Amino acid sequence: MGSTSLNLEDVPSDSLTTELLRRMKCATQPDKRLILIGPPGSGKGTQSPMIKDEYCLCHLATGDMLRAAFAAKTPLGVKAKEAMDKGELVSDELVVGIIDEAMKKPSCRKGFVLDGFPRTVGQAQMLDEMLEKQGVKIDKVLDFAIDDAILEERITGRWIHPASGRSYHTKFAPPKAPGVDDVTGEPLIQRKDDTVAVLRSRLEAFHKQTRPVIDYYWKKGIVAKLHADKSPKEVKDEVQKVLS
């Protein structure tokens, strides 16, 4: 397999300068290994890119890592693909192994934001053991705490225009005319994941599986509880206070 090398002469100067300045800023940042925990709709997806950029971390989302491992045909990726092709769940050992592989990338040199894992206490213990072998540990767990009723209002009010991807919210960003797209006048739809029944079953699973994970890290004294019902800007300010 031939590797493609990048000729720096072909990279625009402003791009090089931006990257150089970013790396210089990153060199002064302390290492951070973070876990984001929160129910669907709690705002993790909004905050994680900002945390990643602000602190020069890599973003490790289990779904993305599994897909990357499949595509790269790593030994662990091949095993995970075999399990999924048989309709089996990917084992915790494999997922932790894939996280271990992903952490070795240059972009993870200053640490990572782990999103969507661990979901159970067993996974948290395995992750801790793997990190301990590398002489590092989780520095902070950000708990996106929010009341189920607020989540229900947030999520079940979402409607989209399928052709353009434009999204609306019955309370926070309503269309000009109920149920139709502002631009085309075509009907809006609700994604099946955004219904009350689906949300309630996802929340039930989250509380049952993941609350014990928060308790596990709480005993280690590394959980920071965020008020995820606030605006994204206020939550971002809380995150910065916690991590500074």
TrEMBL record:
Record flagged with keyword Nucleotide-binding = yes
What Enzyme Commission number(s) appear in the record?
Answer: 2.7.4.3
Keywords carried by this UniProt record: Kinase, Nucleotide-binding, Transferase
Q: What class of enzyme is it?
A: transferase
The answer on whether this UniProt entry bears the keyword Nucleotide-binding reads yes
Taking every annotated instance into account, which residue ranges of this chain make up the domain Adenylate kinase active site lid? 158-193
Could you name the domain of life of the organism this protein comes from?
A: Eukaryota
Q: Which GO terms describe its molecular function?
A: AMP kinase activity; ATP binding
Reactions that this protein is recorded to catalyse: AMP + ATP = 2 ADP
User: InterPro entries, alphabetically?
Assistant: Adenyl_kin_sub, Adenylat/UMP-CMP_kin, Adenylat_kinase_CS, Adenylate_kinase_lid-dom, P-loop_NTPase
Q: Which is one Pfam family of this protein?
A: ADK
Protein family (similarity comment): Belongs to the adenylate kinase family.
Subunit structure, per the record? Answer: Monomer.
Q: Which HAMAP family match?
A: Adenylate_kinase_Adk
Q: Tell me the NCBIfam families matching this sequence.
A: adk, PRK00279.1-2, PRK00279.1-3
Tell me, in a sentence or two, what this protein's role is: Catalyzes the reversible transfer of the terminal phosphate group between ATP and AMP. Plays an important role in cellular energy homeostasis and in adenine nucleotide metabolism.
Q: Mind telling me what this protein is named?
A: adenylate kinase
